[in-house]
Inverse folding.
C-alpha cells in the first residue's frame, strides 16, 4: 500500500496529505511551508488512489475554478479555523468521487479530519496481490493496522503489524531449519536471539533489503511499552515496508514455483 512518508522538509506535499498522512495528526506550518498549505486550499490536479466503486486504483481529478484569492487573502482567512473540502472525480466514471477534508489554521496548523475512500479501503485493495502468501487472519490484521494508523492510533497499529512481521519471520525460520548447514550454524542459539539477530541469521531466507536495513524493524527488540503514540506513528511506515518486503519475496518465490511446475507439465506432455 501507499507508504505514509512525507517530504524531506518533514512537511507533507498536498498529494501526501491526501493519500499518506493519517487523520488527526496536525502539522504546524511556517513561511517556508506555506506554499504546501496554499497547495491544499487551491488544489487543482490529480490524485492517484483507490476507487471504491471501480474496485481498482484510479486517477481522480480535481477540476474546479481557482478560489480567486491572493496569497495574502488566504493567510488572513487562516487567522480563524477554516474547513477545506477537496472533491475529486474518478477519471473512469465522473460520478465516482473521492473526498478529503482539512482544518487549516495559522496557529494550530493543518489537520486532515476526513477522507473517502478510507485508508482501510485502499489497504484491502493493495492486499489482494498477497492473498496467496498471507493468511486470512493476517490480512484482517493488516487492514486493522492500516485503519488504526489512518486514525492516528500509533501503538495499536504497531501491535497488529508486529504480529504479522513476527509470523513471517517465523515462516522463514521454519524454511531455514530444513537446511542442514543453517541448522548446524544457527539452530541451537536461534530461540535466544533478539529480533534483529534473528533476521540477520535468516539472511538467506529473508529479503536483502530487510537484512541490510535493520532500522526497518530494529525497534521491535526494544519493546513498545516505552514508545509514545507519535513515535509509533513515525515507526509504523518502516515496519509496514518491512512486512511488504517479505510478502513481495514470498510472492516472487511462489510465482517462480508455479512457472516451473507449469513448464514441467508442458515438457512432460510433449515427450515422445
Amino acid at each position: 500500500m501507499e507508504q505514509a512518508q512525507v517530504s524531506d522538509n518533514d512537511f507533507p506535499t498536498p498529494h501526501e496529505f491526501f493519500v499518506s498522512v493519517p487523520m488527526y495528526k496536525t502539522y504546524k506550518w511556517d513561511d517556508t511551508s506555506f506554499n504546501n498549505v496554499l497547495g491544499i486550499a487551491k488544489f487543482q490536479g490529480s490524485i492517484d488512489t483507490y476507487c471504491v466503486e471501480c474496485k481498482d486504483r484510479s486517477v481522480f481529478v480535481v477540476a474546479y475554478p481557482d478560489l480567486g484569492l491572493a496569497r495574502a487573502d488566504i493567510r488572513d482567512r487562516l487567522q480563524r479555523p477554516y474547513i477545506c473540502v477537496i472533491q475529486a472525480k474518478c477519471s473512469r466514471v465522473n460520478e465516482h468521487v473521492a473526498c478529503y477534508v482539512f482544518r487549516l489554521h495559522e496557529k494550530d496548523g493543518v489537520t486532515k479530519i476526513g477522507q473517502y475512500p478510507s485508508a482501510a479501503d485502499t489497504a484491502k485493495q493493495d492486499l489482494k496481490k498477497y492473498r496467496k502468501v498471507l493468511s486470512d487472519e493476517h490480512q484482517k490484521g493488516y487492514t486493522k493496522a492500516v485503519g488504526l494508523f489512518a486514525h492516528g492510533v500509533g501503538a495499536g497499529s504497531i501491535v497488529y503489524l508486529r504480529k504479522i512481521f513476527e509470523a513471517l519471520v517465523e515462516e522463514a525460520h521454519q524454511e531455514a531449519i530444513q537446511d542442514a548447514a543453517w541448522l548446524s550454524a544457527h539452530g541451537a542459539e536461534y530461540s535466544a536471539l533478539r529480533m534483529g539477530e534473528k533476521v540477520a541469521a535468516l539472511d538467506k531466507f529473508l529479503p536483502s533489503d530487510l537484512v541490510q536495513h535493520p532500522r526497518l524493524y530494529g525497534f521491535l527488540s526494544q519493546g513498545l511499552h516505552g514508545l509514545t503514540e507519535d513515535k509509533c506513528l513515525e515507526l509504523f511506515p518502516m515496519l509496514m515496508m518491512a512486512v511488504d518486503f517479505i510478502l513481495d519475496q514470498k510472492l516472487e518465490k511462489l510465482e517462480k514455483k508455479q512457472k516451473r511446475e507449469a513448464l514441467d507439465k508442458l515438457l512432460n506432455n510433449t515427450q515422445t
User: Anything to note?
Assistant: Confidence is low (pLDDT under 50) at residues 1-8.
